[in-house]
Amino acid sequence: MIQPERITSFNNQESKGSYILYWMQSAVRTRYNHALEYAIERSNELKKPLIVVFCLAQSYPEATPVHYRFLWEGLQDVNRSFSKRGIGFQILSGSPVDIIPRIVDDACMMVTDQGWIRLQREWRQKVIDTVPCKVVIVETNLIVPVQVASPKEEWSAGTFRPKITRQLPTFLHTLTSRHVQVESQDYQPFTGIPVGAEQQFTQERIKDDTSSHFLPGGETAADNYLSAFLSGTIDRYETTHNDPTARATSYLSAYLHFGHISPLYIALRVMEHPGPGTNTFLEQLIVRRELSHNFVWYNPRYDDYEGLPEWTKKTLEKHRIDTREYSYTLADFEQCRTHDTAWNTMQLSMIRTGYLHGYLRMYWGKKILEWTETPEEAYNIALSLNNRYELDGRDPNGYCGVAWCFGKHDRPWKERPIFGTIRYMNEAGLRRKFRLDGWVGRMLELYS
Hints:
The protein is of the alpha/beta class. The protein folds into three domains: 1-141, HUPs (Rossmann fold, 3-Layer(aba) Sandwich); 142-176 and 218-298, Serine Threonine Protein Phosphatase 5, Tetratricopeptide repeat, CATH 1.25.40.80; 305-447, DNA Cyclobutane Dipyrimidine Photolyase, subunit A, domain 3, CATH 1.10.579. It contains 20 helices and six strands. It has helices at residues 34-46, 65-85, 96-103, 118-130, 146-149, 157-171, 197-206, 219-230, 237-240, 253-257, 263-270, 276-298, 310-318, 330-334, 341-353, 358-370, 375-389, 396-405, 427-433, 436-447, and strands at 7-10, 19-24, 50-56, 88-93, 107-113, 134-138. The chain has a six-stranded mixed β-sheet, with helices on both faces. It starts with 6 loop residues before the first strand and ends with a helix. It is an enzyme of class 4 (lyase). Belongs to the DNA photolyase class-2 family. This is Deoxyribodipyrimidine photo-lyase. Keywords: Chromophore, DNA damage, DNA repair, DNA-binding, FAD, Flavoprotein, Lyase.
């Protein structure tokens, strides 16, 4: 079932092109992909072949070898799956703004998936303004489309939760996988576009990947992690998900960021395992995750200190001149050169694995605020490090997570130096949650 609220059309002129184009952008998967299934429906209805294209940008902002490696593994998964389904798939090296307009002359329709951050939206708008055929955008990486969930930027999870909860009965439905009636794996509609250059380019980009490959990319790996989570971890998720030593998380955030797994698919499978862990996990997957997309969609300064709520900027301004016991630069943080062994270990874990437990990320971000000369500089440093070293960096969840460390979607707390009334975290709090020294020792042994 593809709800009409997921579908937005542009350039509705008739076209007599010979094929349907699906520009895969943010949903790098073949399972539970509403944009793909919609494109297959149109292909079957018009009896025209479907071609899927992914544009591999050569200089995506802040992308590192780790990101390219993870994406490339996902694209190989997609390629194998499309071969089995008889659907033509091509990876083209270059910006979609340059590539897509060159390949749609003979397309009768272009379908693409939704993206929310600024660059994705700019790409999409430039393509829409250029191409001569009908364009359809299909939301598939949210359970509830962002504009349906709320018409404005929400203050907090408390204001957002009832709005999105009312919409869930409409959108929590299975998605049927369709079969193409016109196979297209041997169809070659593009001329003058070099094919195959992306492999050499990608190998060049990932040759400097020195990470541990803790998380392999692709929809198969994502499904394996979900199955492992549901096989027992979910039963203890409610009580232990904030304990980094308990291994009680799903490890799905990077897969959601790259579109290697559908949040709808995750939700439906999790709902088959009722219990307290289920409710807690769905709160994170639906309310918290989709609240972050609400922030990025409606706040044009989502990646800027000035995009924070007025109360947070006011309280930080009041304490701007407070004395910092420690002060570090971006290079100090990046190279794990603080006085705090636990913080250094968190940064090292990010560098070596592309992953840091969510509870530790909160402490990690709060300490950057505490140990930097100005809140603006702290915000920029936290964003830069999160975007570069987390596999799920450059994601609405990541932008929102950094903003939360500075008070976004939170409330005022007890006033204290530097933080003002923004929520504070310290090492003693970590020790109350879990055995910090054991975690630090294990991480240092693994990654030093």
